[in-house]
From TrEMBL:
Phylogenetic classification of the source organism: Bacteria, Bacillati, Actinomycetota, Actinomycetes, Micrococcales
Family: Belongs to the acyl-CoA dehydrogenase family.
Alphabetically ordered keywords of this record: FAD, Flavoprotein, Oxidoreductase, Transit peptide
Domain Acyl-CoA dehydrogenase/oxidase N-terminal: 16-125
Domain Acyl-CoA dehydrogenase/oxidase C-terminal: residue ranges: 239-379
Cofactors named for this entry: FAD
GO biological process: fatty acid beta-oxidation using acyl-CoA dehydrogenase; fatty-acyl-CoA biosynthetic process
Source organism of the structure: Gulosibacter chungangensis
Protein name, as recorded: glutaryl-CoA dehydrogenase (ETF)
Length: 386
């Protein structure tokens, strides 16, 4: 898409509207994120002051139609996630948690009253949501969740804990998944409810300009109106996770692209043995290999996006995108760092920050192992999870 790595004129595969969206988000990243991300990352601060600007760009719940949301296509959503992650994975994660997880849960499984109440405010960034699925003892196996909701008259009592929950300490509402006598159910939990507690998980070596938390629920009383009526099984949270996984398929390439561009620029400027690093065969081989993987990853993301917009996307295809593009993104960052030598570990260069962040991106929304087994089951028909 009009980038240094584009060896195949990939830009021609995008519409004028898609390119215009890319340019608007890229301008925002260049203006608001790049000049400040080193400071935010070093101080481990998530910049809440940019939330209204993200909302103004239509980035929050941008793939949801109606209710004050932008109603953009899947490909447009992916493009935006790629540009944001070129700035920093942690800031792309904010948009993903707010839109693909919390807002999608309400849009897909909420009542009309819940949609009217929450989605416009969340799209405007005035209400922040988090998504409570992963637990201290249940990560890759959400069916083993220990959080429970018990009926109490015409309401519910919620007890349990969630871990590695993005935005928990700044959220106004939490989408919480719990076991009940009727199966897994989802609830919209006000974070100011008595018995709700959110604690930031720190210090971290990855995703430092983002917020990850542990949530605890101590006899929180909820009403039936707090339950997501359309969420009647564990399939419901997985539908939301697939939205987030789709965004990662595009997003991880943004981090990789930025690392590649930094390395290519450095190789052209840094001289050793009286010539730039870019003139050495081994450096050119590194750049070529990185560019090839970026092109393949971009084509993969675009194909998945077009299939999603056409209503033809199958579950295993998202695993192809998430597994492959996270894997190549980390490899590209590691290779790009070698071109910078020792200078590559300094925070004023983006490469190590991207690499550290991608270690988290590779893990959340399904580890390599989980997506490998999803694909293995698709290829063989055999369930190897247990």
């Amino acid at each position: 898409m009009s980038d240094l790595f584009d060896l195949l004129n990939l830009e021609a595969e995008y519409s004028a509207e898609e390119i215009a969206l890319r340019d608007r988000v890229r301008e925002f990243v260049d203006r608001r994120i790049r000049p400040n991300i080193t400071d935010w990352y070093e101080r481990a601060v998530f910049p809440t002051e940019i939330i209204p600007e993200m909302a103004e760009l239509g980035l929050l719940g941008m793939h949801i139609k109606g209710y004050g949301c932008a109603g953009r296509s899947s490909v447009e959503y992916g493009i935006a996630m790629q540009e944001l992650e070129a700035g920093d994975s942690g800031l792309r994660t904010f948009v993903s948690v707010q839109g693909s997880l919390a807002m999608s849960a309400i849009a897909k499984h909420g009542s009309e009253e819940q949609k009217q109440k929450f989605l416009p405010e969340m799209a405007a960034g005035r209400v922040i949501g988090c998504f409570g699925l992963t637990e201290p003892n249940a990560g890759s196996d959400p069916a083993g969740m220990e959080t429970v909701a018990v009926r109490d008259g015409d309401g519910w009592i919620l007890n349990g804990a969630k871990r590695w929950i993005g935005l928990g300490t700044i959220a106004d509402i939490a989408i919480v998944w719990a076991r009940t006598d009727e199966g897994v159910r989802g609830f919209i939990v006000p974070t100011d409810a008595e018995g709700f507690k959110a604690v930031a998980l720190e210090p971290k070596m990855s995703m430092r300009a983002s917020i990850q938390t542990e949530l605890t629920f101590d006899n929180i009383r909820l009403t039936e109106a707090d339950r997501l009526p359309g969420a009647t099984s564990l399939r419901a949270p997985f539908e939301c996770l697939n939205e987030a996984r789709f965004g990662i398929t595009f997003g991880a390439l943004g981090a990789a692209r930025d690392a590649f561009e930094v390395a290519a620029k450095y190789a052209g400027e840094r001289k050793q043995f009286d010539k730039p690093l870019a003139a050495f065969q081994l450096t050119q081989q590194k750049l070529v290999n990185m560019a090839l993987e970026l092109n393949k990853g971009q084509l993969l993301a675009l194909q998945i996006g077009r299939l999603k917009d056409a209503g033809k996307l199958e579950r295993h295809m998202i695993s192809v995108g998430k597994l492959n593009n996270c894997r190549i993104a980390i490899d590209i960052c590691r290779e790009a760092r070698t071109i910078l030598g020792g200078n590559g570990i300094l925070l004023d260069q983006s490469i190590m920050r991207h690499a550290n962040n991608l270690e988290s991106v590779r893990t959340y929304e399904g580890t390599d192992e989980v997506h490998t087994l999803i694909l293995g089951q698709h290829l063989t028909g055999e369930n190897a999870f247990a």
